[in-house]
Each structure stands twice: as C-alpha cells, then as structure tokens.
C-alpha cells in the first residue's frame, strides 16, 4: 500500500466515490432489464456491478482498508438517492420523464433501498475478506475470495429486499433463480475477466503511484510505522 498526502488522498477519494455512484446508477437501470441466458433468467446488471468490486479491491490493496471503508460510507446515501431517481425516470428501461419524480413509487423505492443495503453489506464484506488475505504471497487469492463472498452477500441482499413478494409477478416468482444466475454470471465474469484485469491494473497503478509519490509499496504495518 502507499502513503499519500492529504491532497492526494482527497483527490483519490473524490474520483473513486464518483466512479462507485456511476456504476451503481448504471446497475440500477440495467437490473430492470431481464433476459434469458441458456434458458436461465438474469438481468443486464450482472455485467456492470463487478466494476465496483474491482475498484474496492484495488483501493484496499493500494491504500488500505480505512480509505476503502471511507469511500463506502461516502457513497451509500448519494447512491440511494441516485438509484431511486434513475429507476423512477427510466422504469423498465423506458423514459418516463422527470415529472415522474413528483409521484412516490414504492416499487422503485424498494429497488433503491435494496441497492443501498446490498452495496453496504457486500462492499464491507469484500473489504474485510480482502484485507484478511492480502498478505498471502499468491496475489489472486485475496481478490478471488473477496469477490466470491462479497458478490454472494450483495446479490442476495439486493434481490431478496427488492423482489420478495414484489408487485411485479415475474420478479416475485423468479427472483431466487434470477439471483443465483446473476451471482453465477457476476462471479464468472469477475474471475474470468476482472481478476486478470485486477492484476494488470495493480501493476500499472503501482508504477504510477511510485512515480507520483516517490514512495514505495509497503505493508500496512510499515505504513502505520511511518505515519
């Protein structure tokens, strides 16, 4: 991990918070668009949300667990608002106009609340698992295990809160199946694509941070000793 100045830390936090909110907004739109994959029901949101786990794992690896947790707590309430607005204005992939915000939508509010809860639970678990395993010599174990458990918590927290006994009959009937397929797809995408991408980005960002800070990649214990 790297020890940054206060200004560098603020800049990184702003960029990462904005990225998290952007991915959450996109995922809340895409999760309303179901489709079938090899005869199984899932949603397009399965392809966007793994970006957040990638960003979180890189944050823990490069800057430590406390900045990663700070990002989560800064994102969660703006994300709740953004999730509701996106889902109301773009219901089921269509455009309802901003006047739709004048009327409270309980169905969409459930989706926004589910997104809020899933994000907090999944990301905090991801940070905890990754931080516990990050010192292992095999670099891929920490991101693989944090993705495995973080995505599981995130997926089932979201679908159970959003669609259990939902007024949408299709989602109410099929949400467990959709959740499992969604989890399997996100896990497959993460392990096949995002895990190698993590390795590539880790190497690139490490070189950039060494050049930017003039410091070196140190362990959390060394970072605490220097602070």
TrEMBL record:
InterPro entries: YhhQ. The chain crosses the membrane at residues 12-31, 43-63, 75-95, 107-127, 139-163, 183-205. It is a multi-pass membrane protein. GO terms for cellular component: plasma membrane. Its main location: membrane. It is found in: Cell inner membrane. It holds the Pfam family Vut_1. One of its GO terms (molecular function) is transmembrane transporter activity. Keywords: Cell inner membrane, Cell membrane, Membrane, Transmembrane, Transmembrane helix, Transport. Belongs to the vitamin uptake transporter (VUT/ECF) (TC 2.A.88) family. Q precursor transporter subfamily. Involved in the import of queuosine (Q) precursors, required for Q precursor salvage. HAMAP family: Q_prec_transport. This is Probable queuosine precursor transporter. It comes from Halomonas caseinilytica.
